[in-house]
Structure to design on (431 residues):
């Protein structure tokens, strides 16, 4: 009975000869791979019965024979209206509001408002994320304090607030008629909570700047997932920028600074968790693109995904008994409570700023703002938490962000060229 725990506890050391931090040596149950399988088992306890119920209703042809008070709920969850949008072009984005009689000063004010909202939300979110996952709470001269270890609880906190905000927004504003079967949101939800869990958990093993660069490099797996899931094709400049991003990230990861603190060392476990984050996140975005073939708004998507995210995470936490344990930790440390609540508020507000910015100014402006945010996040983390970056590492960061801006520029040029093509000519393929 002791073989499996010992193997799990020694896996990262055997794989890369890394040292497990002292905080993780207290119990093999704290090891990330064990926690991952426990969380996955909790999700499976909800997914498997749900899958069997969906198959039962479909085989029984419930849409034709069903009656009673539960019929509308089951129809919405299992069948939907099955009315898809005829045009999938930019289905993931609402039609951008073109300024008609708006003054230049008003547009500048809107742009500054959007940029400030996105920067404030996600920079604060990044700083708090690193604080919660890497620092102790309740430390005194005699007591070293304790770390918060349950990343899934933070995911739950983020999702419950996002679910509430999206639900209120949908209830108070006019939305398109919903047609997608609700169960289809569960796929994006599952990959979304797993990617978020990997993101939080990775901070126990890698520095925050490394995590930010890993997010920037997710362009590569997104392209791979696009080919596999959506059968997309890409232009040569997209492959070029993806290669530049790979080179920049490699330069940063291979650079070494003297006397690096243990919390800033990139370990094998951290690399695996970042890879998991990128893979799950890439699937999420591509699956959501496929869901947008149904007529829906981004806020409806946000609501549907977060409904299942709350269901999965609260179910898993209750099964493990971790929900009460996390609440007790929150009760012991009021500072952690404030950080967790503010983390959730920043995440939910950030999503609303995303939708508003894309609606007002388009995806290109939004991408530039978020790319700048990533650069500011690295700088802020280095200033606050004392991370060191070598010259080679700094060049790697510069290469990554140069490739990202080149990607935005090339995409905007390509869209302008496609608009100028006469109706009789062959249009350039949309990417």
């Amino acid at each position: 009975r002791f073989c499996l725990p010992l193997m799990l506890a020694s896996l990262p050391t055997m794989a890369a000869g890394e040292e497990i931090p002292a905080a993780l040596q207290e119990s093999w149950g704290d090891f990330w791979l064990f926690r991952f399988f426990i969380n996955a088992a909790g999700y499976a306890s909800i997914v498997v019965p749900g899958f069997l119920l969906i198959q039962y209703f479909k085989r029984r042809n419930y849409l034709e024979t069903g009656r009673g008070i539960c019929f509308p709920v089951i129809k919405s969850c299992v069948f939907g209206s099955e009315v898809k949008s005829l045009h999938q072009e930019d289905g993931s984005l609402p039609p951008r509001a073109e300024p008609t009689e708006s003054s230049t000063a008003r547009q500048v004010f809107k742009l500054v408002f959007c940029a400030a909202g996105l920067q404030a939300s996600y920079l604060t979110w990044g700083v708090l994320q690193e604080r919660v996952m890497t620092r102790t709470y309740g430390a005194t001269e005699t007591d070293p304090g304790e770390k918060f270890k349950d990343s899934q609880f933070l995911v739950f906190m983020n999702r419950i607030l996002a679910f509430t905000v999206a639900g209120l927004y949908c209830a108070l504003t006019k939305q398109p008629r919903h047609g997608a079967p609700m169960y289809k949101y569960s796929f994006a939800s599952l990959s979304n909570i797993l990617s978020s869990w990997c993101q939080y958990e990775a901070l126990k093993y890698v520095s925050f700047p490394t995590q930010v660069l890993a997010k920037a490099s997710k362009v590569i797996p997104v392209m791979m997932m696009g080919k596999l899931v959506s059968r997309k094709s890409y232009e040569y400049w997209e492959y070029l920028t993806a290669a530049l991003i790979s080179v920049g990230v490699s330069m940063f990861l291979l650079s070494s600074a003297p006397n690096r603190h243990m919390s800033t060392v990139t370990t094998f476990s951290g690399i695996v968790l970042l890879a998991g984050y990128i893979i799950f996140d890439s699937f999420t975005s591509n699956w959501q693109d496929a869901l947008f073939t149904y007529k829906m708004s981004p806020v409806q998507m946000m609501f549907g995904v977060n409904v299942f995210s709350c269901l999965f995470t609260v179910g898993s936490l209750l099964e493990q008994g971790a929900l009460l344990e996390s609440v007790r930790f929150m009760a012991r440390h009021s500072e952690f409570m404030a950080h967790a609540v503010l983390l959730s508020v920043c995440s939910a507000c950030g999503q609303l700023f995303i939708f508003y910015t894309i609606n007002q100014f388009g995806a290109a402006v939004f991408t530039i703002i978020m790319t700048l945010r990533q650069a500011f996040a690295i700088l802020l983390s280095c200033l606050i938490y004392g991370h060191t970056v070598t010259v080679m590492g700094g060049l790697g960061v510069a290469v990554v962000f140069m490739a990202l801006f080149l990607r935005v520029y090339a995409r905007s040029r390509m869209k302008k060229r496609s608009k100028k093509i006469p109706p009789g000519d062959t249009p350039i393929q949309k990417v």
Remarks:
- Confidence is low (pLDDT under 50) at residues 1-25, 85-94, 97-101, 423-431.
